[in-house]
Design brief:
Elements: H1 5-20, E1 22-25, E2 29-34, E3 40-43, E4 55-58, E5 67-72, H2 91-94, H3 97-116, H4 121-144, H5 146-149, H6 153-165, H7 167-170, H8 173-178, H9 187-194, H10 197-217, H11 223-247
Antiparallel strand pairs: 1-4, 2-3, 2-5
Helix pairs in contact: 3-4, 4-6, 9-10, 10-11
Length: about 250
């Protein structure tokens, strides 16, 4: 059975988009995701299945407007250092959320309906023209705001090439702008500042499990191990305190 290349076009576009939604995290890394109406949540990769030695995390493919920040838990480091950057999404990045949603809808709603619904070549070409117009307009805005976005000329050139050459990547524009941003704030302190209740407890438990895992893999007499044990004990105390407050 020979598959029609036209039938495979849609799945290929979806596969490229999903591939771009995957973030590979080091053992001591996690994500902070800024969702609808500015609500934050923590994101961890798969602990027991690694890719190239790192934990894969799949960003929600149905929420292209969400900004994602990569943070580390630096055991033993103070919560704030002079000149450190905290976990936050600049308004210049958040402003691209409507563009990402519009590109996503063009890719995964309008164009499939035109293509698989056999609405005709003029409608399909109009959809493609609208898609590339959205990409071009978003890139123009990114160029105008490149300083605020932290994009060098070379970085913008790479971004522009990837979005034009592979439109499914353009639906991830917000994540492509937020993920490379440097964040100095320790993940555990960012969680304490941005999360609360069950979301905070789950983030601490996830971090504690990975601290325990790293402790098993390194020299127990090293300075890193000592700092990790301090972090583990602090997380345990915080979880106990949260549990005591929750039981009152």
């Amino acid at each position: 059975m020979i598959l029609d290349a036209q039938v495979l076009l849609g799945p290929a576009v979806a596969a490229l988009y999903l591939k771009d939604c995957v973030v590979l995290l080091e053992r001591d890394e996690a994500l902070m995701v800024r969702g609808w109406r500015g609500r934050w949540r923590a994101g961890f990769g798969l602990r027991h299945w690694r890719l190239a030695g790192r934990e894969p995390y799949l960003c929600n493919p149905f929420t292209p407007y969400e900004a994602v920040l990569r943070l580390r838990w630096d055991a033993g480091r103070p919560s704030a250092t002079p000149g450190a950057t905290s976990a936050a999404v600049p308004r210049e990045v958040a402003a691209f959320a409507p563009w990402a949603v519009a590109i996503w809808l063009a890719l995964f709603a309008f164009l499939p309906a035109a293509f698989y619904g056999h609405l005709g070549l003029p409608v399909l070409l109009a959809g493609l023209a609208a898609l590339y117009a959205l990409i071009a307009a978003s890139l123009f805005l990114a160029w105008r705001r490149r300083a605020a976005l932290g994009l060098s000329g070379r970085a913008f050139g790479v971004l522009a090439f990837e979005l034009v050459a592979c439109p499914p990547y353009a639906a991830n524009l917000v994540r492509r702008l937020s993920l490379p941003r440097r964040v100095d704030e320790d993940f555990t302190h960012a969680c304490a500042r941005l999360l609360e209740g069950e979301a905070l407890a789950e983030a601490r438990q996830g971090c504690r499990a990975r601290v325990e895992e790293e402790l098993e893999a390194i020299d127990e007499d090293s300075a890193r191990a000592a700092a990790l044990r301090q972090t583990r004990d602090r997380l345990a105390r915080e979880l106990e305190t949260e549990g005591a407050h929750g039981g009152e």
